[in-house]
């Protein structure tokens, strides 16, 4: 099946009891055993079945299987948030005394997790520029147990060559984990480029409507079983209703993404020619340093972009305070257009030096382009830029 058919039908069948097209929401904490012996068999894993929703639930499992299928992975697991998905992946793979190598440009929350919390568990973290492939090779040591990247990266849309990283990870015999939140499996499937694990903030494009928090991890069946074994004790589960909302969002993933991408390209082109704009960051622009790699590993360039203004931070503030249709808010991947200032908001966990090192300028403004009419969005930005 083609991807746009997969998102609608993949893994989903009318329910056996009433032939409902929409999957049932199994809104239950626990599941009744036929008798005491069956309960014991389920706990011993001698029989397959559901016990308790922190361990598994039919609506949640359906979603996890669906995302795995879309990502060309064997299996998946749903988490309470994207950060929970990343945290649980780390604790399943890396233990005290070992270390992680991560690209330096990542979501500010992930950065705080890696910088402040993971080291408390005795796990070392090295942040490096993963597009420096020679350095990457040298930084991965015997102690390194995970290579982590985001591409396109939040917030600068930095592009990293997944195949090149996968090759290095393979040589070093460690897994490569890619945060695919910005691209979604419609635009980029890291496992097809050699990655081992893919994580998502399902809060974003997978859900698509800004009404839930969730995270997903997909990968090999053996790894997902280990992850499940740990996650069920950590209590990182999500709710059946959230899983259902993500399932519903996924049905329109391809039509939403097509619109996000075409709108973003039009806005990037508009901003490129604007006299107040210093630089536009969008991987679909030919002068973006990652354009060739993005063209190779993505089918379209996504719905996220950013820009620096000639007037710096004050001008950026003026634009954010002047937009009428766009909303000043963090998060991304919603049908609504959202605008924010990474240095003081999503990436305020970075110090000034860390921001500088990653090229997140003080005046940089990030836009999650929605699915509104692009002319209305351009008009809104035009009137806001005129206020500088
Ligand atoms: C790329 C990326 N990964 C992970 C996360 C964390 O996801 P959540 O907010 O669902 O925990 C975010 C949140 O913005 C993100 O942008």
Automatic annotation (TrEMBL):
A Pfam short name: Cys_Met_Meta_PP
Names of the cofactor(s): pyridoxal 5'-phosphate
InterPro entries per UniProt: Cys/Met-Metab_PyrdxlP-dep_enz, PyrdxlP-dep_Trfase, PyrdxlP-dep_Trfase_major, PyrdxlP-dep_Trfase_small
Residues annotated with N6-(pyridoxal phosphate)lysine modification: 204
GO molecular function: carbon-sulfur lyase activity; pyridoxal phosphate binding
SUPFAM superfamilies, sorted: PLP-dependent transferases
Record GO biological process: methionine biosynthetic process; transsulfuration
UniProt keyword annotations, A-Z: Lyase, Pyridoxal phosphate
A Gene Ontology term for the protein's cellular component: cytoplasm
Family: Belongs to the trans-sulfuration enzymes family.
Protein's name in the database: Methionine gamma-lyase
Species of provenance: candidate division WOR-3 bacterium 4484_100
């Amino acid at each position: 099946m083609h991807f746009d058919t997969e998102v609608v039908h993949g893994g989903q069948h009318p329910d056996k009891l009433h032939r409902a097209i929409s999957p049932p929401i199994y809104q239950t904490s626990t599941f009744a055993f036929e008798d005491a012996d069956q309960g014991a068999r389920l706990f011993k894993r001698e029989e397959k079945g559901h016990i308790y929703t922190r361990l598994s639930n039919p609506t949640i499992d359906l979603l996890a299987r669906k995302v795995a299928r879309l990502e060309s992975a064997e299996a998946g697991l749903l988490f309470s948030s994207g950060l929970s998905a990343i945290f649980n992946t780390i604790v399943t793979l890396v233990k005290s005394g070992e270390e992680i190598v991560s690209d330096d440009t990542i979501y500010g929350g992930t950065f705080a997790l890696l910088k402040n919390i993971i080291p408390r568990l005795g796990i070392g973290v090295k942040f490096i520029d993963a597009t420096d492939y020679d350095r990457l090779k040298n930084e991965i040591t015997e102690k390194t147990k995970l290579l982590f990247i985001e591409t396109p990266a939040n917030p600068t849309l930095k592009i990293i060559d997944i195949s090149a990283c996968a090759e290095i990870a393979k040589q070093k015999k460690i897994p490569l984990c890619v945060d695919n939140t910005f691209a979604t499996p419609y635009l980029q499937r890291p496992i097809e480029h050699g990655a081992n694990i893919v994580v998502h903030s399902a809060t974003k494009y997978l859900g698509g409507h800004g009404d839930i928090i969730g995270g997903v991890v997909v990968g090999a069946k053996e790894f997902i079983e280990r992850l499940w074994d740990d996650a069920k004790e950590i209590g990182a589960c999500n709710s059946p209703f959230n899983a259902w909302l993500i399932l519903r969002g996924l049905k329109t993933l391809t039509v939403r993404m097509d619109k996000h991408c075409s709108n973003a390209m039009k806005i990037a082109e508009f901003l490129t020619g604007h006299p107040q704009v210093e630089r536009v960051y969008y991987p679909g622009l030919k002068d973006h340093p990652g354009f060739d790699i993005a063209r190779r590993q993505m089918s379209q360039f996504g719905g996220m972009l950013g820009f620096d203004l000639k007037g710096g931070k004050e001008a950026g503030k003026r634009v954010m305070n002047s937009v009428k249709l766009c909303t000043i808010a963090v998060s991304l991947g919603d049908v609504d257009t959202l605008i924010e200032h990474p240095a003081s908001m999503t990436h305020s966990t970075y110090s000034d030096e860390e921001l500088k090192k990653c090229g997140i300028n003080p005046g940089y403004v990030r836009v999650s382009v929605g699915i509104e009419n692009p002319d209305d969005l351009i008009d809104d930005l035009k009137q806001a830029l005129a206020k500088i």
